[in-house]
Amino acid sequence: MVKIAIVKLSAMGDIVHAMITLQGIKAQLPDAQIDWIVEEGFSGLLVHNPDIDHILPVRLKALKQCRSCLFAEVRKIKTYAKNNYDVVIDLQGLIKSGVLARMLGPAVGFDRHSIREQAASFFYRKSFHIPYDENVIYRNIQLVDAVLGITTSREQIRRKAPFLFFDEEERNKTASFLRRDQKNIIYILGSSWESKIYPREKLATVIKALGENALLVWGSEQEQASALLLADQCDAIPLPRLTLGGLKALISEAALVIGG
Q1: What is the pTM of this model?
Q2: Burial code of 36-54, b = ≥16 C-beta within 10 A, e = fewer?
Q3: Could you tell me the domains of the chain?
Q4: 78-102 tens-digit pLDDT
Q5: What's the confidence (pLDDT) of residue 20?
Q6: Are 89 and 7 in contact (CB under 8 A)?
């Protein structure tokens, strides 16, 4: 049994794009153990996924405010390393993820010419050239395939099964927001990058043009304020703050999701 660790720490959309690799691995290496190292705040995205054996949270982002927490994080990572992985695949491509992958075991990742932070490749035992301008989903799959010696076709990717899992309690909590007589369209107002946030005035135009049951999802107070302003401008419903499980349940019923 091959023991694989995947390092993809954040952010929400990047983790979702990387999760598509799991089905390809399990289709060809069904007995593989797959553990996923992720920022604690995003671990809920991975919960209930049957292709993941262990979700291993870290709090590297918290180190910006808590320098004294560094030693606790190092001890935690060293504990994870006792799992004796055969390979550690860094899908993040940052210096911090490269260091983390190196601490966990035999680290591999993108080469210096196909990575955002070139110095990260220094920490890999082996690196692979995957064109940086390639679609991020295909980049992730090409790297995983090259590392594990498997082949995942684009047809397999297109025909992938659902991979965001949740429990019935989360489904029941979001059911009241959904309409059966209209299409449910989810608008996610936030993003990790300010440049990815669509201007509110233009988003209002989109909501008015599409109509249907427009549901506004927010995560911060600023995003909540934006949701309330949008609701005043057009026929849209600001939702209460959702857990990641609740968001997954909501998305599973959506006809369309629009976000940064």
Answers
A1: 0.92
A2: bbbbebbbbbbbebebbee
A3: 3-158 (3.40.50.2000), 168-259 (3.40.50.2000)
A4: 999 999 999 999 999 999 999 999 9
A5: 96
A6: yes
